[in-house]
């Protein structure tokens, strides 16, 4: 079952974010706190939205998707940028990841959004294969750039 995240899900979503960071070999970069996550999802001006995948038998959360709206200047419509998609390793293969992506695609169609986009690490072959099996196309000609920490402060300060 896929449902909209509730404020009571914040601790388990936070724990799964840390699991994802560990899987991606970047746990040291996962600095977000539960309080920050709670504010981003449920504060006065939510900036991100969440879905939770539950085990059908137990009702326990086994995965999540966090997303926000973006905008395509070429298409003139909003879209969804999927920041994180994660299903606990013991639950993979049970359809939870596909169900999360299906719900995001449904939201796009319902709202007239023209894109559902995300990034994947180039070494993550299992995920790349899964995404391609759904019809997703890699944007190989694009390179992601990022400013953080000292470089961001230097440029913005």
Order of strands, main sheet, comes to 1-2-3-4-5
Order of helices and strands: EHHEEEHEHH
End-to-end gap: 45 Å
Residue windows where pLDDT falls under 50 for at least 5 positions: none
Q: Sheet bearing the most strands, described? A: 5 strands, mixed
Shape: globular
Summarize the structure in words:
With 157 residues, the protein is α+β, with helices and mostly antiparallel strands. Helices cover 36% and strands 22% of the residues. The protein is built from five helices and five strands, in the order βααβββαβαα. A five-stranded mixed sheet has the order 1-2-3-4-5. A hairpin with a 6-residue loop joins strand 2 and strand 3. The chain is globular.
